Amino acid sequence: MSSSQSSAKPDDRGFxxxxxDHLLExxxxxxxxxxxxxxxxxxxxxxxxxxxxxxxxxxxxPERERLLRRIARIAASIRxxxxxxxxxxxxxxxxxxxxxxxxxxxxxxxxxxxxAEANAAxxxxxxxxxxxxxxxxxxxxxxxxxxxxxxLVNAREALRARPEHRRIIVATRALQGAVRVMIxxxxxxxxxxxxxxxxxxxxxxxxxxxxxxLAIVKRLVAMHHGVIHVASDKDSGVSFTIEFPTNxxxxxxxxxxxxxLAPVTVGESGAAQPT
Length: 275
Prior knowledge:
This protein is α+β, with helices and mostly antiparallel strands. It has helices spanning 20-56, 62-92, 104-114, 116-121, 141-158, 192-196, 213-223; strands at residues 100-102, 124-129, 137-139, 166-175, 178-185, 227-233, 237-245, 264-266, 272-274.
């Protein structure tokens, strides 16, 4: 039996580790399965909406309120299933990158901005320390945004366990032939079980998590020939460090650069720290 056809070996939890060949086969099966699920799920969603409209025309009273609450629960379950389907497809069958010369600072700015309201509601301060001297990266900007978005959402959910002074620090740094991105939060450290299998699919300690967010991150980073590392410490929190290789020139023309550049230091734990 060839290596590409060999069976997946179980890990220490008894689960089979998925090889790239297994992932390709999983993606093929997932496409057909998702098609079969999405159609009836769409019918359920449509009928739930029709029921909601009908219930809203009922006279005010306890019966109307009970019916609306039940319909709202159905709608929430539909959204949860749709999110699971989307996450599973993104993991099992991600689109091929459509590379362009990407300014990672601009991508991070956009993702941080789109999450500003959610972070404010969660009483989280986000500090962005870009190195404006970084090079452009040959990458798919939408997929890079998905990488950063998943990590930032993960950080926000982790910070719920911290009673106050919740903080996320995002920093970039120019390296020789690469760009480094650091995303750190001062939430609780990772549990030993999660830390040992952090990027594997379906590993999560969240009550309603799919365990696919960071698995998608790892696949997309690998598809861009990058590497990702995680540091976890009870004093410094959790930090993700990603490096993307590049042979391109500066992301911004020198005339556009602010002066002076915003400095960044990285602590011994790997957490990005503003200076």
